[in-house]
Each structure stands twice: as C-alpha cells, then as structure tokens.
Model the fold of this input.
Amino acid sequence: MDRIRWDGDARYEKIITDISDERLFEHVKRIADFKREAGSEGERAALAYIKGVLEDYGIETKLLEFDSYIGLPETGELTFPSSAEGPVSGRPPAFSPQTPEEGLEADVVYAGRGRAEELAHAGVKDKIALVDGLASPHLARAVEDYGALGLVCISGEQIHDMIMTSIWGTPTPETAWRIPRCHALTIVKTDGDRIKEWLRQGPLRARMNVRSFVGWKKIPILLADVKGRAEPDRYVILSGHIDSWHYGATDNGTANAAMIEIARALNLHKEGMRRGLRLAFWSGHSHGRYSGSAWYADTFWEELYRNCVGLVTMDIVGCKGSTNYTEFPRLALTKACGARAVREITGQEGQGVPFGRAGDQSFFGIGIPSLFGVMSRPALEQSELAASLKILLGHAGFPWWWHTVHDTIDKVDLEVMKKDTQVAALAICYFCRNSILPLDCVEAAQEILDLLTDLEQKAGTVSFLADTVAKARDLTRSAEDFSDLILNKALEDDTQIEYVNTILINLGRILIPVVQTAIGPFDHDLALPIKRLQSLQSVLDLATMDQEKDAARFLSTRLIRERNRVEHALMRAKDLLNTAARRVLEF
Done:
C-alpha cells in the first residue's frame, strides 16, 4: 500500500482524453523523416519541427548548444589476405577508433561471449577477438585488458548499433583513459558463422578496416516550459532523447511525439497546474553516452537542486507487440506514482523495477526523483538479441528492430503509443497538479532498511552494519509518522502544502544519491552496472577474505568511511522528518 495523499484522478480525465492519436502519429511521421545522429542536420531539422509545433501551441521554448565528445560510426569491413573468401561487411560501434588507412592486420581467434576465462583461453593478445553478442563497454574493456588489437561482435540476425565507451557523458581527466582504444566492428550472424567455420579449418588472418568519427561536435538541447501557478519556481522534467540510430521511429521518435502531445494537453489546462512542466529533448544519448543530460545536470546543478521536483523519462514507446506495463523503471520514492499511473490507464498491476545505469538518468547525484524510461515492453522472446540483452542489461525487453536500420514508422503501434503517452501524462499530472508531491517517503526508507538488512545477513560475522540497520529502522519509523500526519492532517493552505512538498523534495536530495550513486552528488558514475547502496557492497568481499591480511584491513577502512556516508544521510533524513512532523502538528 502506498502512503501518498492523492487528490483523485477525476480532475485529470480531461487531460488524458485530450491525448490525440492523430496528432501523435503526425508528429512521429514528421520526426522519423530525418536521420538524427547527434550534431547532424537531420537532428536539427527534427528539433526545428518540434520547436515550431510547441511555439504554435503557445509554449515557450529555448534551444541550447554545447560541445560534446561523441562517437559516430561510419563503415567497416573484414578482408582475408591469405584466403579466397570474400570480404565481410559490418558497422563499428560508436567510439570505436578508426583504423589506419591500410587497416589492421592480425590473426582471428574465437572467444565465445568474451568472458574473462574465454578471452584467456583463446589467447587474444595481439589478435582480433571474435565474440558472440552485442558490443558493450564491459566487453571493450575486457578485450583491451587481455591485449586484443581488434574486436568483432556477432550481434545476431541484424546489426544492432551500440556504444563502446563506459564514460558517462563527456570524459574528465579521471576517466579519459577509458576512451576505447580497441578497433571494433559488428557483423551479422551468418557472417559470424562463416568465420567460425573458416577458423575450424585452421588459422585465419584478417585485415580490419574501420571508418568512424570520435571527437568534438556541437550538439543541441531543446527545452520548453509550461509554467505552474501555486509553486511557480518548481517543475517536473519530461525528457527524451532526440538523437537516434538511423530513422529511429520507436527509439526515440514516438517518445518525442508523445512529449509534444503531453505538453499540448497540459498547456490547455494549465490553470490547474501547481508546478510547471519542462520538456527536455536531449542530444548525445545514442552517440555521447548521455552527454546531453549529463551536461545539463552539470551546468544547471544548483538550479535543478532547488527547483526540480521530478524527472519522467520516455524512451522506446509505442512499439508493436509491447503489452507489458509492469516492469517500468522507478525509484522507491516514485514506485507508487508509477504503479498508480499504469493501473489507472492499463489496468495492469505492477511494482516496476529499480533503475539500472542507463537511459539519461544523469540526475541521481542531485537527488531528483525519477520515473519511467521504457514504458511498455514486448513479450520475451528466445533470440540472440534477447540473450545478449539479458547479459548486458539484465532484461531482454526490447523489440528485434532496436538500434537497427529497421526502426521505421511501420513498427509503430498507434494504440500502444497512445496508451504509453497516457501513462506518462497521468504521472506528469501527479507531479504537476497533485497538491502533495507523489513521493512515498515510507517506501524510500523501507528500501534502505531492506538493502542494509540483506547485506548484514549475507556478510555474516564480518558485518559491522548492525548500528546502520538500527538507524535505518529509526528512519522508517519517522517516515511512517510523517506520512500518517500528511494523510490525516487537513492541509488546504498553500503555504502548508508547499512546506510539506519541500520536506519530500529535501528527503530525496538526501537519500537518492546515497542509494543510487557510488561517486556522490557532483560527478557521474560510469555507464556500467551499479547496485543500490553500491558503496557498501564490498562488505560481501570482506566476508570472503582473511581478516588478518592487509587487504582485508584496507577494505575495512574504506567500508567504515562508506558506512559513515550512509549513516550520516540516514540521520539527516530522520532529523528532517522529525522536525517536519512537529511543524505539521502545529498547522
């Protein structure tokens, strides 16, 4: 049961029913007319169309530009100098460096899925490693660590465009060494099977040629604002990336169209908006590893910290066959909001899944409550793509045309697209129009308590988290008390409502960075898998070590510092809620 004070959905019905499938389809057709690589003329043309439509609706827009370090694939090919076999064409992943003009010549070895033991067994040093699966930052780093000169990924029946860098956004001096050095190429399964057969017949030498761009380009971000009334400085961001692979009809043209239509519908009924809506169309998602949203978070950090109440992201919506709405990405704070929006629009009951490290979630360090990303998912399939996605992302919920030249307008299901749009629109209504922000402080506290309890139990005798667990339990009780007050107290005065909302916002600012980041508020973790409460996860490593050895003692020292970080956040959050509870009792 969620602990949110809802105003009721009847007041949002007109907005939801105003969502027009005709407008949605017209917008996505126009946007998907353009190829939209980051920094390209096609991307700018699509943004010009969106900007014009929004301004025709009377919505204020602003176009920003910044220099971004991005990777743009061009062409690639394998030839076989000592063989009569013909060339194999492919496409490099983003951030694959370009080979010399004459190409890179080396022996080819097959290394399974590129796991450490497979790379070691294959002996990839100074060779070209052939692996099954999608190109990824983890794989690129692994083959470099084992000394491979080149990487060839067999992505399945289609070439799925991927990005190799593990750096979130633009590199810094601390991360620049991670810029990929290994030349890479993606090929289809039929060609991969041919190469495997040649390898079974004996040693195989290949020449790899990769043409790509890695460097600086000026890329855009389009913002648009519908102002709120009662809390005019505050706003929720509705975001989606504008840059795409090829024509990108469902990734991300449908989401861009949905954002336009949501803004139009809310603007028609803006007299009921307590808080504002800000649209953000990011570039640099597909080709800069979320560089647009990362730059925006860095550049406007303080303003976002003070005023942004939430982030709703739309990515890959309206796909044929996507009928599952129960696995929406969310934080603990936003789980109830997402579940209610899904239930009211689709009738499906689901609690969503915790956010992974992807999808322009550049705002965890600031502590902004986030919700959604992929709206609906297709039925799970047994395929090479599904297997690769399961390894890479932990789920297989993308359609077969994801990141391919086949992501065209015929893959859009208008009924699914409208439903996806309505789910997001209702969640936006909760953030913009509900008196009390739809943030569940009890769920947020309970999540931390559950995570800490699980760590303590798994760590066994070496765990020193007992006091931390106790502090989390105290925070949960304080959250329950504060939540009970919000639910039962008459809060009709705007000043009182704004005060309660300030407490909920500040609670997110304290807890989200601790749960969702390892690096802290002012930087970005790598684009690699990260667990919640990542800073304490190594207590499980400590449990397997000889406690008298230096390594264990060094790690124990690090964990004490990380424990202090977590406990400090728990105590700040508890003090915040206790002080607020006393104030609310006086209302």
Observations:
- The CA atoms of residues 381 and 543 lie 38 Å apart.
- The longest helix spans residues 550-585.
- The chain has a mean pLDDT of 94.
